[in-house]
Specification:
The complex is a heterodimer of chains A (241) and B (234).
Chain A (H helix, E strand, L loop, with lengths): L9 E10 L2 E11 L5 E4 L6 H9 L6 E6 L5 H5 L1 E4 L10 H11 L4 H14 L15 H13 L5 E5 L7 H16 L3 E6 L2 H7 L2 E6 L2 E7 H6 L4 H8 L5
Parallel strand pairs in A: 3-7, 3-8, 5-6, 6-7
Antiparallel strand pairs in A: 1-2, 1-4, 8-9
Helix pairs in contact in A: 3-4, 3-5, 5-6
Chain B lengths: L1 H16 L2 H34 L5 H12 L3 H12 L14 H37 L4 H11 L1 H17 L2 H7 L9 H11 L2 H33 L1
The chains are: A alpha/beta (241), B mainly alpha (234).
Bound molecules: adenosine-5'-triphosphate and magnesium ion.
């Protein structure tokens, strides 16, 4: 594996997305590097989910380019994964959900079980491995979605508001899991509108407002001295959308 | 009235004794209809899923045909298969007319559109929910089709049960292509028609009771599957 070139950085050049005459993502440029956890922060409707979908390749920009370091071929998709704001769990067991991407990618059967067990353990789901995924609690479902996204060892993991409907304890469990995934070497690119979470998880902040990338700064700098009035207002809790 | 009571008593007696004539007819019925539904599922499930998922030439035509054929009267299906299999027909050389194979073919033709149409609906609904997630996981078209069929398995099973219910209860198609030959192609529905017209009510009633029980059983099974699926898989 060592001689396989990384798919990162991901280069965005003037990425724009328009729908129904509205510009929802407006001229975003920049490289997402292999190092560090990037957190896209912004109020509701800023375009965070859209930006992740564009990066992940689920949507095509209406203008501008999104390019992986190795080009945008079919195989690049298998080397990234995304946890959606509302993950869709398959109508199978917890373990069956985690096994699914391995099955899709053609991982040899004898390797599958060990990988599934490891992902279950990491996500703290070993005890519910055989339970139907859709009867799990909200927090368990979210951990399952992360485990399923991680099991095929993606180089990049996109997470869209992974804790939006969870209580503090479940949120902490998710954040610990995200950090554990980060430790395994996957690049974390996530969105949140939770300031505490951004502070705890981010190395760098990408502050998004009305489809525009207003600033991109290391996390300590962002919270100590935001560069734009919008970011300052958002930090004070005055920016609604 | 006494005739009826006597017939009913005789019917119960036949059921409880496992009357061999009765068993033979029931056995052939089940064999024909289960084979037909198995074949129809093998064709109808992937066909319906493909119609729901993919754009390909002829897709609209197939869709229209499926919808049109869903309500086809069994006698018409029987007539079509008869024409196909009759000595002068395109498949006449096979010599299948008035055999159980012909009956399986006719029932299969009758219920494949039903299973395919229900399968298309189920898969289309699921696809709406799964599409983005599956694309994110880099599932190919074939993998997507198999995934949606598997995750829709409970609803599809009820579609298959509905197909079986229709096959086992229809009389027109098997009458025409099977010919209702004793010990060869006589099934429950054709036997009921014949025995009733001969005034032999006991056998007709006994078979009728089994048909009703089967229909009930199929419906109960469908309901149980639906409930179990809702509890387990949401
Ligand atoms: N496919 C689409 N077509 C048209 N408009 C869309 C589409 N997807 C999103 N939008 C609009 O784009 C804007 C940004 O949506 P997006 O979901 O990216 O926001 P967000 O930052 O993720 O918000 P939240 O914090 O509520 O999740 C919203 O106004 C939304 O209504
Ligand atoms: Mg969002």
């Amino acid at each position: 594996m060592a001689d396989v070139p990384s798919i990162l950085p991901l280069r965005l050049t003037d990425v724009t997305y328009q729908a129904r005459g509205q510009t929802l993502i407006d001229g975003i440029s920049g490289d997402l590097e292999a190092k560090g956890r990037s957190v896209i922060l912004g109020p509701n409707g800023a375009g965070k989910s859209l930006l992740l979908r564009l990066c992940h390749g689920l949507l095509q920009p209406t203008a501008g380019r999104i390019e992986w370091a190795v080009g945008n071929n079919e195989r690049v998709r298998q080397r990234q994964a995304m946890v959606f704001q509302d993950p869709v769990l398959l109508r199978r067991s917890t373990a069956g959900n985690i096994r699914y991407p391995l099955h899709l990618h053609g991982t040899p059967r004898r390797e599958q079980q060990a990988r599934v067990d490891e992902a279950l353990a990491r996500a703290g789901l070993s005890a519910v491995a055989d339970r139907p995924a859709r009867v799990l609690s909200g927090g368990e479902q979210q951990r399952l979605a992360i485990a399923r996204a991680w099991v095929a060892r993606p180089e990049v993991l996109f997470l869209d508001e992974p804790t939006s409907n969870l209580d503090p304890a479940a949120t902490r469990a998710i954040e610990e899991l995200v950090l554990a995934v980060d430790q395994t070497g996957a690049k974390i690119i996530m969105t949140t509108h939770d300031l505490g979470q951004a502070r705890r998880l981010a190395n760098e902040i990408l502050f998004l407002h009305r489809g525009r990338l207003l600033e991109r700064t290391p996390v300590t700098e962002f919270f100590a001295a935001p560069r734009t009035a919008e970011a300052a207002a958002f930090l004070k809790g005055d920016l609604l959308c | 009235m006494t005739d009826l009571t006597a017939a009913f008593a005789l019917a119960l007696d036949m059921l409880l004794r496992f009357d061999p004539d009765l068993l033979e007819i029931v056995g052939l019925s089940l064999q024909v209809s289960l084979s037909a539904v198995g074949l129809a599922a093998l064709i109808g499930l992937p066909l319906g899923a493909a119609v729901a998922l993919f754009r390909f030439p002829g897709r609209l035509a197939i869709n229209a045909l499926l919808t049109a054929f869903m309500g086809l009267p069994p006698v018409v299906v029987g007539l079509i298969v008869y024409l196909l299999l009759s000595r002068a027909g395109p498949l006449g050389i096979l010599g299948l007319l008035f055999t159980p194979a012909a009956m399986i073919l006719a029932q299969c033709l009758l219920i494949t559109p039903i299973i395919a149409a229900l399968s298309a609906q189920t898969v289309a609904d699921l696809h709406e929910e799964y599409d983005e997630q599956l694309r994110s996981l880099a599932a190919g078209p074939g993998q997507t089709l198999v995934t949606l069929l598997w995750d829709g398995r409970f609803r599809l099973l009820t579609a298959i049960l509905a197909g079986f219910g229709r096959a086992v209860a229809e009389v027109g198609a098997v009458m025409i292509v099977g010919g209702n030959i004793n010990h060869a192609t006589r099934v429950m529905t054709t036997a009921i028609a014949l025995e009733t017209s001969k005034g032999n009510l006991a056998l007709a009633l006994a078979l009728g009771i089994i048909l009703i029980a089967l229909a009930l059983g199929v419906n109960l099974a469908a309901m149980a599957i639906r409930d179990a699926a809702r509890v387990r898989y949401g």
